Amino acid sequence: SQHHAREVMTAEIAKDAIDYLTSRYATDPEVRRWVDNINIWVVPSVNPDGAAYVFTTDNMWRKNRHPSCAVDVNRNYTFSWGSCNGSSGSCSDETYRGFGPASEPETQGMIDLYSQVHAFYALSYHTYGEYIMYSYGCNNPDELTAMDEVAQGLNAILQNDNGATGQYDVGPIWNTIYVVDGGSVDTSYAQFGTYAYTI
C-alpha cells in the first residue's frame, strides 16, 4: 500500500488486513487456516518518507522524498521502465520515473521482497477510483483471459463505497485508466510470475 504518499487510506486498509488476521486467528477457523497455510506479506506503506511529508507539510504530496529530485516510486520499477510515455523524465512532474530503473530505495526494497517471496497473488492498493486493474500498463498480457477471470472474481465480491458488488471497472491498466510504465504490478508479474492487481 501507499506507493503514492497522499493515498493515506491505503495504509489503513493494509493495517486493517493485519488486524483482521491477527485478531480473528484464535476464533475464526477460516482465518486460522489462511494464516497457518498461506504465506501472507503485508506492506502498509511503500513510501513512508513521502507519507510523513503529507502529514507535516503538503497533504497532496505524491512522490518519495529523494533529496535532489523526488520520484513517483510507482513509475520507478524495472519492467517497462520509461517505455510507453506512462511516466515523465522531468523532475518537476508528479509521475517522474527517476534517473534509472529501480533507482529508489523504496522500489529496491519491494523488488527484493518480490524476489524472496515469489508470491502467487499480489494486491497494490491505491485511492484514485473504483478500479481492479492488472498488467500491463502499456499493453495486454499474454495471460489476459486468466488475469481477467481473477479480476472479475474480485469484482464479484468487492464492495464499492456504496456497498454494491460488481461495480469496479476491470481490465489491463493501460486500457482501463491510462498508460503506466515502470509500475509495481508489471514488475511483479513480468519478472516474478505474480498475478498482481491494483485496486
Describe the fold and architecture.
The protein has 199 residues and is of the alpha/beta class. The protein has helices at 8-24, 29-37, 48-56, 105-117, 144-157, 173-176, 184-192; strands spanning 121-124, 131-134, 169-172, 195-198. The protein has seven helices and four strands; from the N terminus they run ααααββαβααβ. It has a four-stranded mixed β-sheet, sandwiched between helices. Helix 4 runs parallel beside helix 7 (184-192). The mean pLDDT is 97.
Report Rg.
Answer: 17 Å
Share of helix among residues?
A: 25-40%
Roughly what is the average pLDDT, rounded to an integer?
97
Q: What is the percentage of strand-forming residues? A: 5-15%
Specify the number of helices.
7
Question: Element order, helices and strands?
Answer: HHHHEEHEHHE
Sheet/helix structural class: alpha/beta
Gross geometry: globular
Major β-sheet annotation: 4 strands, mixed
Secondary structure tally: strands: 4
Strand order of the largest sheet: 1-4-2-3
Unreliable runs: none
Please give the alpha-carbon distance between the first and last residues. Answer: 10 Å
Task: List the SSEs and their pairings.
Layout: H1 8-24, H2 29-37, H3 48-56, H4 105-117, E1 121-124, E2 131-134, H5 144-157, E3 169-172, H6 173-176, H7 184-192, E4 195-198
Parallel strand pairs: 1-4, 2-3
Antiparallel strand pairs: 2-4
Summarize the structure.
The chain contains 7 helices and 4 strands; from the N terminus they run H-H-H-H-E-E-H-E-H-H-E.
Question: Which characteristics define this entry?
Answer:
alpha/beta; 4-stranded mixed β-sheet; 199 residues; 7 helices; 8% strand
